[in-house]
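Format notes (please read before filing issues)

Several people have asked whether sequences and C-alpha cells are stored in separate files. They are not. Every record keeps both together, in the order shown below: the sequence lines, then the C-alpha cell lines. Line labels are part of the format and must not be stripped during preprocessing.
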Amino acid sequence: MKSIMPNEIKYENLVLRKLCKDDNLKIYEIRSNQDIAKYLDRPICQSLEEADNFITKVNNGISRGEYFYWGITLADENEVIGTICIWNISEDKTKGDIGFELLPAFRGKGIMTKSLRLIIDYAFQELNFDELFGEVDPQNNKSINLMKKHGFELYDENNSGTTVIYRLAKKN
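Then the structure lines:
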C-alpha cells in the first residue's frame, strides 16, 4: 500500500510535518532524553547517525504505507519539538496505535493536546479508522490523562503490570 500521509497538517500555531534529514539533531535530542525515555520500551539514541537512520527508517515505512509519523513544530519555527504517530495498523486498515512524545520544555502548553486532536480527527475522518489504541506505562499519568481527555478509556492491562492499553472508538 502506498502512503496517503499528507506532508503537513496545520492548525493554529502547530505544524505536524514529515521528518527530514535536517531534523536529525532534534530527533537525537528527543530520542536520547531520559525524561521521555523512562516510560518507553526502546533503547536510548546514542548518536546523530542513529537519529539519521531512524529518520530514514520512518520515511521508508511511511512510503510503504506501514505507518504515519509526524514531527511536531511550532508554526513560526521549523524545529521539531516532539513526534506523533499512528502505527501498528491492522491489516484491514480500520485500527491502529498512537504514539507521542514531546520535549519537556514544551509540555504544559497545550501542544500535545492539539496534536493528538489533529491525529484523532485524521485517523477517523481521513483514514476512516474505527478504533485507536494507546499502550502506556501505568506510571505515565500525563499520557494517560491526555488520552482520557480525548475520550480514550481503559481497555486492557497486561499481566506483568508494565503497560496498560487505552482505546478510543469512532463515534458514528
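For reference, the curators noted about this record: The first helix runs from residue 24 to 31. Strands lie at 8-11, 14-17, 68-74, 80-87, 95-102, 131-136, 153-157, 164-169.
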